[in-house]
Design brief:
The complex is a heterodimer of chains A (474) and B (101).
Chain A lengths: L8 H6 L3 H10 L3 H25 L6 H20 L5 H24 L8 H28 L13 H20 L3 H24 L6 H22 L3 H25 L3 H5 L11 H5 L11 H4 L1 H7 L2 E6 L1 H5 L3 H13 L3 E6 L9 H8 L7 E3 H4 L8 E5 L8 H4 L18 E5 L20 E3 L4 H19 L1
Parallel strand pairs in A: 1-2, 1-4, 2-3, 4-5, 5-6
Helix pairs in contact in A: 2-3, 5-6, 5-9, 6-7, 6-8, 6-9, 7-8, 9-10, 16-20
Chain B lengths: L2 H20 L6 H12 L3 H10 L3 H39 L6
Classes of the chains: A mainly alpha (474), B mainly alpha (101).
Chain lengths: 474, 101
């Protein structure tokens, strides 16, 4: 490639579009304006592309239009066909695609003498190769785990930690040494860095389990932005630097949120650190002296009778709801309760599901009004005045042991206090411990009814029973 | 351009971005992430520049592949974000039929 050391003036002018993106994100603060915000971002992006084509005289470059059309078709197809339950896969896939695109561009810049001219530009290009390739292979593993092609459980092999550290150290060394190597050697160093980065992403993500996906997807999202930013610097283009930094900031913010919601450190998640934790005995988990429970005798253990008598119900969904495809049944139950004049809210834990906001889109897809969705801190104070907490496919996020038992993977994790409601109905597949492997003492409380089995069926039955007495009375 | 310009650009954008992003409620975090996917396709600009100055067919093909991949991110990211946000809008429209479009 020819020399790329000077900023093209059209690129500098294109920076003027960056505030459009910031305003677009600002409009994402409310569902009422978010559609407009997203459209504004798209307009800004078209502006960037148009100015780039103009500044480089690319309007009449037939091959370029072909590639652009191919990408547009693929992206449009994926966006139109994806089901809401697959959103984590799609976002992970896009993280990887963005990473690999940045890595390819940086490899090209390093492949010839004039590409990245000074050592700092070369260092940026090496970073783009490393971060981009690592994001790509890590995201591919994430997609395969989310799609259950690979087992979602963490995969560890002997010496995993050592190999991981060795790969990252070698990658860092290749990046630094390659940046200051003389020209003909740069290309070989970059190929080495590429291979090391691909391996590092693979090894690191194999060890991350399904329920840690909200953290890892957010982090890979941040990395894809950083890869774009350093690739932009390597090619002396200020726009990707600014926009990549925006993406990096967004990804890091979500990573922090997700870590806080699990009471984990990012390093621990990436190191798969809780995996080796000793399984906690049922005794230890059940140990907390059960406060005198507001025993309702659960109206003869009949969940329908319980719901009939309820004035206020809080539904707490988890990833199990998505797996069972129980959203339409939840919608029916919601309607049946609302028709009886019951106050219904949803208590949504930040890490319920496989990515930030996953439960919200699944419930919005079945057109449940989003004003009913309450976050952890808003719902907990109101659970004691709730007649029935209805757990749908959620386990760790409602496990009271998180607050009472020390030394478990979820100790200290903020949970939705379903146990403080007057009665609890649990519609989970079975009573096995959740992903964290901690037995849930909630199941043994006297005011809890277990409706085990496929949540779509159990919730559907509850909804049908409530619908039936509605039609019988009127 | 000086190092100060580039560092200021990167960290300035990150800082402004963070404050604006912080205000997005968890309700919209999934569409926010897919929107960020679209923005990380900004690397399309670098890929377009690379296709313009490729000297060999091999370079042109790699640059073209990068253009296609980044374009998939941009188009797919914005499109799927739009799809999700419309779902939220639908429930809003139902509650407030007179809401301005």
């Amino acid at each position: 490639m020819a020399a790329l050391s000077k900023i093209v003036s059209a690129d500098l002018a294109a920076l003027a579009f960056v505030p459009l993106l910031v305003l677009g994100i600002h409009w994402m603060r409310s569902p009422a304006t978010a559609v407009r915000g997203n459209a504004l971002g798209a307009i800004g992006m078209v502006g960037f592309v148009a100015l780039t084509l103009h500044g480089r005289g690319l309007w009449s470059h037939p091959a370029m239009w072909g590639w652009l059309a191919a990408g547009t078709l693929i992206g449009g197809f994926l966006a139109a066909r994806v089901r809401m339950i697959q959103m984590p896969e799609l976002v992970a896939l896009f993280n990887g695609i963005g990473g690999v695109a940045s890595a390819i561009v940086a490899m090209l810049a390093l492949s010839s003498e004039g590409g990245a001219t000074d050592s700092v530009a070369r260092l940026a290009a090496f970073l783009a190769v490393s971060i981009g390739a690592l994001t790509f292979s890590g995201s591919v593993v994430a997609v395969l785990k989310l799609a259950r092609v690979l087992r979602p459980r963490p995969v560890t092999f002997p010496g995993h930690g050592t190999i991981n550290t060795a790969l990252l150290t070698a990658l860092l060394a290749a990046t630094l040494l390659g940046s200051f190597a003389p020209y003909p050697l740069v290309a070989s160093w970059s190929a080495g860095a590429l291979v090391l980065a691909l391996a590092a992403g693979l090894v690191a993500m194999l060890r991350v389990g399904g329920a840690d996906m909200p953290v890892s997807i957010s982090f890979l999202n941040a990395l894809s932005g950083v890869a774009a930013a350093v690739a932009g610097y390597a090619l002396a283009n200020p726009v990707p630097v600014a926009v990549g930094a925006l993406v990096g900031a967004g990804g890091l913010m979500l990573t922090g949120d997700m870590c806080r919601a699990m009471n984990r450190r990012l390093g621990d998640v990436l190191a798969g650190r809780h995996v080796s934790a000793e399984p906690v005995s049922a005794d230890a988990a059940a140990a907390p002296p059960a406060a005198p429970t507001r025993r309702t005798d659960a109206i003869d253990r009949d969940p329908v009778a319980l719901l009939r008598a309820a004035r206020r119900v809080v539904i707490i969904p988890g990833y199990g709801m998505a797996l069972a495809q129980a959203q339409p049944a939840v919608r029916r139950l919601y309607d049946a309760l609302m028709n009886k004049g019951v106050e219904v809210e949803f208590g949504i834990h930040p890490v319920a599901g496989r990515m930030p906001g996953h439960m919200h889109i699944l419930l919005a897809e079945v057109e449940i009004p989003y004003e009913k969705f309450k976050e952890l801190d808003d719902i907990n104070p109101r659970l004691p005045e709730t007649d029935v907490a209805l757990v749908v496919g959620a386990n760790d996020v409602v496990n009271p042991a998180a607050n009472t038992v020390e030394g478990t993977p979820i100790s200290g994790m903020p949970v939705i206090r379903a146990d403080t409601a007057r009665a609890v109905v649990v519609c989970n597949l079975d009573r096995c411990p959740g992903y964290a492997g901690v037995p849930n003492p909630l199941y043994d409380r006297p005011n809890v009814i277990l409706c085990l089995g496929d949540a779509a069926e159990t919730i559907g039955r509850l909804a049908a029973a409530l619908e039936a007495d509605g039609s019988g009375k009127e | 351009m000086s190092a100060l310009f580039w560092l200021g650009l990167f960290f300035g954008a990150a800082a402004i971005g963070y404050t604006v992003l912080r205000a997005v409620p968890p309700l919209l975090h999934t569409p926010l992430m897919s929107g960020m996917n679209a923005l990380s396709g900004i690397t399309i600009l670098a890929a377009l520049a690379a296709i313009g100055i490729a000297r060999t067919t091999g370079e042109a093909h790699w640059a073209g592949a990068a253009v296609a991949l980044a374009a998939a991110n941009v188009v797919g990211g914005f499109a799927v974000t739009h799809r999700m946000l419309r779902m939220f809008r639908r429930s809003l429209d139902r509650e407030n039929p007179s809401w301005p479009r």
